[in-house]
Amino acid sequence: MENLIKIYYDWEIQLEVLLSSGIQIFLFFTGGLRRHGINMFLRFLIWIAYLGADMVALYALGYLSRHVNVPAACDTLRGKHPLAFFWAPFFIVHLGGQDTITAFAMEDNNLWLRHLLNLIVQVVLASYVFGKSMGRHEIKLLVSGILVFIPGIIKYVERIRSLNCGCLKSLESSMVYQFESNNISIKGRKVSPQVLTLIEDWMVSLGGVEMIPQNNVASYSDIVFTSLNSMKRVLNIFGGHTRRLGDPVRFGRRHFSLSWQPKIIRKVLEIQLGLMYADLYTKAYVLRMRSGVILRCFSHISMLVAFMLFLAVNKQSYSTVDIVITYSLFIGGLCLEVCAVFISMMSPWTWKWLKHRGWHRLAHFSWLLFSNGLIGCPEEKSFCSTTMGQFKLVSWLWDVDRTLLELNTNEKGSVMNVATKLVRLIGVKEEKLFWLGKLVYMKYNADKILERLIEGVCRFAAAGTQQDAPKLPNLNVNNEEHKEIDTFDFGYLIVFMHIRTETYLDKTAKPEPHLDSEGVTRCPDAPVEEWADKDAAVDVCRKLSHYMMHLLVNHPSLLPLSGSAADALRRRNIFFTVASENYRFNRSAAKETVEEITEVWIRLIIYAAAKSRPEMHAVLLARGGEPLTFVWLLLSLHGMGDLGRTRIELAGRRPGSLLRYVFEFAG
């Protein structure tokens, strides 16, 4: 054991160097995966690596600083590893972070001043370590080390600037257009909407790419270009700036058309949210600036020249292991820089900039990288996460009569049901039940359901505020008998509708097919084609119901709750009584009834999105985002919701208000 400890102390600094370098490689290749949504284990590893990267580099610098003043004859580091001082500037490079991840969460962006102080302290410390060894090594090695300081400081400054640009305060002050009652101010100068339209038309014409045509047929490049042209507006929306202008939102020369196919709109929103994630949590925004490009080129040149000088150094007085480690630091750093260049070339911003400059061959190369299926993001691949969390409340309620709810037998084998039985055995109290639900929940690829939501938003926006109350003949809702529902807040309404939906869908499950006398498989009550249509409608309805419960349990801050989510969940017994005894839907028109319930959930999601806050959506982008963010952004682009011209409120019972929609839909 003593020998192992001695070996560890003899090789401690080398292990720290290799560990720090390995962490940086891991962060570079995994940091950008969060945009697509990742499992909990990989997210935990990225979090540990993000925190550990700075800790390892800081500890190694502190270790070096404690040994530089000790005579070589008395010190293991100076005696056996005289090249260790040369690794100090590499730790500054590592502290600068990787292009694919500057912040793990939104709170990290708000700490940019702390990182600025760390930059000053760590550069001084590394300079102290390096300066103490200047008189004992040849000039080529010293110049090489000084040149390594340059990319280290540049990368650290890039990181601090990216954190500053991504913090909430910067978002709030980064409005491109300041919207007023009748005019628009650009950099303090008032411009009429007509002049702004001409400016936008001119800017789009410079790009040389058409917008999405009105015939609803669009190439992938049209969709990407449309998304890029609207990013200034998206930035304003995430900054919380209210649009009060009377003109519709424009994407370049064309209005955002409600007639576009939901698939096209979904793809536009995907790219917008993916680009917003890059601006908030990576160095993408800084590297698009002219100053950022110049400094990055200077950083590459400095690192390359430093490596060439190190190749010319006489290495006979240094150990082979130390030389190999130094080579690995140079080669690993240069390879990461080359990969970073490819990532920059793969950015749609780079493609648009090259096309604007008329460098068509480079623009074509950039587009090939971006649309490549291996390393890029082709049209069939999501640019950001489109998964939808699923949480079924009744799976967690062990104290409820299962006969009343008539649960499917396959529910007994679900992950949630098994976890429920386990925590019940160890005596976990009921109030801790939903905390476990935050850790164990299902996810579902929601491309088709997102398109259904987008279709609902476009229909809602096209109708405007002058909407008649919907006709729901199959829900058999008697408002006079259940006025107490009006006293419940939005959380109660979600739980009520969720249990009511589950009750109906379980009772109208598709019967088992059987073989008739001719040996043909048939369903007893309806043709096979009709059951297939109904099953698809049931699947959409059930997924929307489970998703809203997922938001209530895991992200209650996204919902306009007047109380806490726990309060709404504690009242569930009331809802079981109401759902089972008083609300009986029409089972003779099963498909129509399911469509009406689905419309209820779409309206509830629209209201929740309209009342959500932009900072919460910015925070959730670090976790892959939520489908609710798509709805919120689309509403805001249409000028609806709390950030638009048309506010959606629950107060009052004026004709067309969402209160009437929600409560007539839900009872």
Automatic annotation (TrEMBL):
The chain crosses the membrane at residues 13-32, 44-64, 84-105, 112-131, 137-154, 293-313, 325-351. The keyword S-adenosyl-L-methionine does not apply. Residues 47-395 form the DUF4220 domain. It comes from the Eukaryota. Coiled coil: none annotated. The keyword Membrane applies. Keywords: Membrane, Transmembrane, Transmembrane helix. This is DUF4220 domain-containing protein. The lineage of its organism: Eukaryota, Viridiplantae, Streptophyta, Embryophyta, Tracheophyta.
